[in-house]
Amino acid sequence: MIAVGARWITYSSVGIAGIGAALLWLAVNEDAAQETQSALEGSQPHEQLLLPSPSTESVRISSCDFKNLTRLSSAATASEAKAAWRVSRQELLDYPDGSRAVNALKAALTSGENHILDTSLRVSPGGELQEAPSTRVYLMDLLAQLDSKQAAAYSRKVLQESTNSDEWAIALRNYTWGVDNAASDPFLREKVFQLLTNQVWVEQPTSGFLEAFDFVPYTQDPALVAPLVSLTKPGQPESVRRAAFLALARVFSSNSTIGLEGVNQAEADEPFSAVRADAMARADFTRPQDVDMVRAYLLSSRIDSAEFALFGETFPQGGQFAGPGLTTTFKPEPFSRLAKRDALARSMIEGWMQDPALSSRRAELSKIHERLLRLTASAKKGGYS
Amino acid sequence: MNIGNILQRIVLAALVVPAAALAQYTSKPLDPAYYMQEPMKYTGLLSAGEHSCSGAIVKDTRIMLSASHCVFQETRANPWGPSPEWFLRYASAKFPADGQGRSIRAYWYFTGYADAVRLHSMSSPQSFNLDYMAGYSYEPLAEEAAPYFLNGDSAILQLPWKQTVGYPSGLYRSSNPYRYYMHGNGPWTAECKTTLGSYILCNEVSAGPGNSGGPVFVWDAASSRYGFAGVYVSGAERSLGDAADLSGINAMSEDEWSVVTSAIESADKGLPDDGTLNDGTPTVPGNGQRLSVFGNSSLIPHDQSAVNRADMTDFGSTTSSRAMTRTFVLANTGTSPLQFTSDRPVSITGRGARYFKIRSQLLGQLDPNEGQYLKISFSSTARGLHRATVVVQSDDPETPEYRFAVQARRR
């Protein structure tokens, strides 16, 4: 046995004027705002609502009212932008006339001004941003905090027109915040599919692109599992592969059946699939469908023995990532439920060990059985059974 | 230098206030007779398939902390590792036999999608900065858990004396009798510097391959104990041909502890019915009073502006003007009593403030590990989405105004 494990490595180691002008003449059109809301719910076109309308009644607002927003729009460095973003949020939330604050933000967004920053799109628990890669992403984040409906409407436009994967990530998040039942929304699902299959973005992944994988466990859309599985394959950029593995783990933990079925279908022609071994090792034997799928898996003659060995080493897989997602939250499975799963799995495996049809898988089953004996004994000692 | 001398130094260090004359910077094997001394008694070997790492039992006897790269291997086709096993205070020339250790049922890798390998390699400061994991067992993994610092980076950078322990088995050939003995170094006072976030490098201190996940303990003079502050994640060792000795440590921050704690509570205990937080957590004194807010057992971080259903900051929607009430828990997760600093310590601000009402004001003070309920209701006849910010004033030195957003929709 080689004892390694440490990575033992040495280390050497568009303009301000435009925004100001936009803020000076902000359209405050309540009818337009209403139209935006109803358009979202009724899926009518609404793109024009995002543009300041010179023809509607306008109200003069001093740009001094939103001086931190102006600072954010024009920030040239990451630290300036982050600082302005933080104070803008409260400035906008505290502004007495909410619709004017929203219109100020929309004007800043539609002005075209954007500054690329040397920071990544980083997420905190609850989908909150820690930092953003551009001033526009910060502005889109603020809009969602101020008015999730209008942010969703604006996001729809971004998802139809933008070619920037970081903007897509925040637009997808904003859309889920502002639309009811967004997880089953066909537009959202289609856009997530487009994101996952955008070859340019796959080859040059941004942090926003990777964080957007969270929309697969969020939507629980079986059609998104196959493109996600394809991103785990050798040859894909390492960061893409790992993010895809993490997203799949969260799919399995939230709904094992969709994950298992999706991976099974996606990998049907593969003699060896690490991701399929991982999926099967996360099967929940309290679900009859999972039991059937694992049994069929073990009976398959087309699967390489190396994959069964991997499955035997890892069942029941307990590794999860606990990081923040744009839309999903880490929900550890209650240990009392895990103990129940282990007990059921043990009894099922004991039956399979006597099953002549599964005699060729006896080595793997014995290994799993030994592990489950230890786990169930441990659960008993810990008071979980 | 023989093993007896090293033992004497380590044991002295554990029993008395450290002295410079005892400094030892290179990891050496320890006699098992002394494994029950602090801080060695919390340490063990983590077997994860082909790899071995180190770890420590901290905070709760069922929680094992280590480095995430021990169980999430970028070199594997499937990066999630096989079921890890725990060997408390292991001592042998041979690798432990499969199935002889304590089972770690679940392990959690604390990272975001983009941080899994980030846009850099896994062997980068950006990745090491996030390189910690928590494993959880059904049953206790040690007799007691090590005390810990809420802000490990401050402890490592500001307090002088450290001791590090672990299993650097990669230093040895397979025939060496001390290969899988617990090793230790310290107390040492080498200069440490933050490289990125909570990733800290300490010059002239070395362990070796296999020590990843090994605990870094810092001497707390106030309690006369060593407290856990972080885990080894990288390093360089002269004896392996490197130009210098170097230790890379991922210090556990308060935020990281919050995630671990809320995960464990969600999976296991949850908050008791009386709203108090009293899990017997041993913490090292000196961290002061600390206000934390929980919704549905999930921590609501200070300044959280994004609402969500999981922690109840998103109240949901209602079609009537009847009040919807949500109950939060305000807890003192520090080590000194926390005082609320005004007659009305909780207030609501922001655009939708008029739709939210505080149904229970907080009174007096919270002792460490104590909590109080805070009820907030929403009612509105005006249709639409309403948002506001809850502000709690206390004498928490870091967040005297703890703020978080709430939202509700009137249909």
List keywords for this structure.
heterodimer, A: 385 residues, mainly alpha, two-stranded antiparallel sheet, two-stranded antiparallel ribbon, 20 helices, 5 strands, 59% helix, elongated, disordered N terminus, B: 411 residues, mainly beta, 8-stranded antiparallel β-sheet, 4 helices, 26 strands, 34% strand
Distance between the termini of chain B: 77 Å
Number of strand segments of chain B: 26
- Percent of residues in β-strands of chain B: 25-35%
Determine the fraction of residues in helical runs of chain A and give it as a percent range.
Answer: 55-70%
Radius of gyration of chain A: 25 Å
Characterize the structure shown.
The complex is a heterodimer of chains A (385) and B (411). With 385 residues, chain A is mainly alpha-helical. Chain A is built from 20 helices and five strands. Chain A has helices spanning 16-24, 30-42, 67-74, 78-94, 98-110, 135-146, 148-161, 165-178, 186-196, 199-203, 207-211, 215-219, 225-230, 238-254, 256-266, 274-281, 288-299, 305-314, 335-353, 362-381, and strands at 25-27, 58-60, 122-123, 129-131, 319-321. Chain A is elongated and about 75 Å long. Chain B has 411 residues and is mostly beta strands. In chain B, a hairpin with a 2-residue loop joins strand 2 (43-48) and strand 3. Residues 1-23 and 269-286 of chain B have low confidence and may be disordered. The interface between A and B is large, with 86 and 103 residues.
